[in-house]
Amino acid sequence: MHVFQVGAGSGGMAVLDLVARDPRITRVTLVEPDVYAAHNVYRHLFPPSAVGRMKAELAAEWVRAIRPDLAFDAVVADITDPARQAEFARMAAECDVGVCAADNEAAKFAFDALMRAAGKPWTLGEVLSGGIGGWVHRFSPGGACYGCVASHLQREVKEAPSGPPPDYSAPAAAQPEARIPASKASIAVIAGLHACATLGEQSLPSPLAGEGGESSSRVRGNGASANELRGAASRSTPPPGGEAPPPSPARGEGKDSQAAESLLFSLQAVPGVFDAPFRAHRFRIPRSPACLTCGAAAAPTLSGEQLDGAVADALARLGAG
């Protein structure tokens, strides 16, 4: 099986290390633009002596050391680079499953577009600020896109204390750090779930669609308000009667066949966000006809009104403290 991954940061490398060890994976194509910096060391797999080198090259060396039989293509590039989209489209078309471990919205939307155009499944992992928990999402060909999921969930899980809003009039100016770094342990937990979701695309039992135990709860994303989502994330008790929730419909079956699957997992108790640690909350998010990315309103060229709406939606997600 061929994996196409974007991102080899602290979370991306943790996912890649786990996925690459599976004997069914025979090829990996990695796109990563960044240099390994001193501040990366305490959360990363690479040693301090590697500071200053390209992360993509270090990732290739790491994987080849544990899987010398695996074909590995390391590409030093930005997935949003317009000059290389044809090259990235070929990579997406050749893979069996995609893995997004990027930490910025532009890269997530770019990867989503590539995978949707290629008709390939892909997964996304996101560690919340401070390592209080994280998301794992799984997308199916023809189903809900990243825009559907991001818009539906509102991106309103509070991740850090509110700070000054970004100065969008000077995008090149230095911006204050808004995120609280997560610990390596927190990153490893979410990376493990992300790896399981990815390997689940290779006919393993799905960690997102299987039966839940007493420590998990299922929430239908359809029509849920932001407050309801917060309430779901804060539950610390099993469903009424203590019974496990019913299994989800099989992938590709039933009315939710175009839904994206999302798992929110808490790692800490945080007032107003999570009442208890180690709780799993599942969502099935349908494809939205009104989505400006993949819905009926989507067009190759956005109108001025649509562009304004898309920008406002993105700023609302990114600027929500």
List keywords for this structure.
9 strands, 8 helices, 321 residues, 15% strand
Structural write-up:
This protein has helices at about 10-20, 55-65, 85-95, 105-120, 145-155, 185-200, 225-235, 305-320, and strands at about 1-5, 25-30, 70-75, 95-100, 120-125, 135-140, 215-220, 260-265, 280-285. The chain has about 325 residues and is α/β, with parallel strands linked by helices. It has one domain (about 1-160, about 175-290): Rossmann fold. The longest helix is centred in the middle third of the chain and has 16 residues, at about 185-200.
Question: Any chance you could write out the topology, listing elements then pairs?
Answer:
Layout: E1 2-6, H1 10-20, E2 27-31, H2 55-66, E3 71-75, H3 85-94, E4 97-100, H4 105-118, E5 122-127, E6 133-139, H5 146-153, H6 184-199, E7 216-218, H7 226-234, E8 260-266, E9 280-285, H8 304-319
Parallel strand pairs: 1-2, 1-4, 2-3, 4-5, 7-9
Antiparallel strand pairs: 5-6, 6-8, 8-9
Helix pairs in contact: 1-2, 1-6, 3-4
CATH architecture designation: 3-Layer(aba) Sandwich
Beta strand count: 9
The average pLDDT is 79
- What name goes with the CATH superfamily? NAD(P)-binding Rossmann-like Domain
